[in-house]
Structures are given as structure tokens and as C-alpha cells.
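Prompt: For my understanding, could you write out one protein's sequence and C-alpha cells?
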Amino acid sequence: MKKNVMLLASLVILAGLCAAQQPKPKLKVYISADMEGVWGIVHSDQTSPESPEYGPARKWMTDDVNAVIVGLFEGGATEVVVNDSHGGMRNLIADGLDPRAFLISGSPKTLSMMQGIDGTFQACLFIGYHAKAGTEAAILDHTISSSVVYSIRVNGREMPELGLNGAIAGYFNVPVIMVSGDTALCGQAKSVLGAGTVGVAVKDAVGRYAAKMLPRDDACRLLKEGAKEALLKCASVKPFVVQPPCRFELEFHTSGQAEVAWLVPGVTRADARTAVFSNGDYLEGFRLLRALIALASGR
């Protein structure tokens, strides 16, 4: 009897040791980090490498992202990949980023602000994002290019960058679980991506170039807590999917910009300023969209 008890105890201990040695299930998280929605930023001078104000803004951006990374790992993430997504995409201070995270830096990149996303990720976050072009009381509102794009519509719906990029995540069945930026951005995220997406507003815009900031420590705390909360409930957030066929309408600021786009086979004009094309694959359509914007930018 005593031997049986000892054997049973040994088996229980062995089972416990085996369970402890089992690898943790992977929980990969993707971050696309823009700059206009970062705490402290209210003007394009702060987001431009040519400006003396750019240096401090890079640190604020890195600190915002780091606060999110901490929250993700506290929430159970096993891998975090950060894609620098603003301008030339070399803004994050590489050696200042949380050393547990992978960094994708530089441009051009095939998927631009979403480079590196694929179906192996369980969640996606948009940090430091901004509202779409033409939004009232929103810091540095624009859609991809403030000098080229007046608006972008997909299947009849006007899209901010968070929608265009959210649909790329959705293409790979990855939900966007959290966004951060100003209050206008957070409102648009709920409208486009759904109520399940956590929005963390680090500032409240009073115009295009002015905002009321949260105290810095409060902003970092909310970013960390928001990321942790969002990850813990990510299973309940549905991916944002654009159903094919996908009709893209790119409205430029000038008719001359539209004329350049019209040179591309398969692109037609709805009016003097609007280029239109359709594609059965959202990702292919998005890449053509970016190419048309790049063509118009170089005119």
C-alpha cells in the first residue's frame, strides 16, 4: 500500500514537471507605429527630420511604443514586432526600444505601414495614429499624403489610414485590438473597426495644430494598461475585412495628379480629380493605390 502511494506521488510530481516544461503557446503581436498621434506632438515641425523639434518627438514616440510593449508582455505576449510607419520610417530610436521587441525600420516597404504582418499574428495595434483628411479638431489630419490625397473610398466608404491598414490586418485574419492618438482618431477607430477595439486618447485636439495633453505619466500608464486590457480580450475582437471585389476611389487635390494616375492601365476617372479601379484581391488593390499616390507625389 505504501509503495502504491509513493508511486502515485511520484507520478503526480512527474506530471507536474512535464507540464511545466511544455512550451508556452505563441502569442505574436504586431504594432504599426505612426507619429502624428503620439503624445506631445501638435505640429508637422515635430515630425520632420529637418526640424530641431524632431529629436524630442522621436523620444516621445519611442516612449509611447515602449509603454504599449510593456503592457503586451504583461498581458501574455510572447513576441512583439514593431513596424516604424511614419514618413521615411526611421523615427523610432532603435537602441531605446524595449529590447524584447523586433523592429522593422526604413522604406520603401511593400506593405508600407503594415510591413511584416501575416497570419501568424494573433493581434495588431495602431499606435500614434491620426484622423483622416478633413476631420475637424484633429491633430495633423490627413490620409497617407497631405499634399496628394483629398480622400480615399473603398467600396463606397471613405477610409482613414486606420481603415486601410486595418483591412490589411483583416486580410490575414488579424484583429486590430487597440489604437492610440487623439480623441478624434479614437472615435474613428470605433466607427470603422468596431466597438471591440480599445482606444487610448493621449491628447484632445482643439484644432489641427493644438491639443490638450494628458500628464505624461498618465498617458504612458493608460497606454500600458490599454494594451494589456486589449490583449486579454483579443479573442472577442473580430478582424476588419473588406469583402471583394474591392472598388477603390482615390480623390486627388488637383486634376493634374489624377491625370498621372490615369496613365496606369486599369485605372479610370470618375471626374477631373478622382481615379477609380477595382481588384478582386484587397492586398493587390492596396499596393496599386500606394503606387498611384507615389506617382502623383513625384509630379
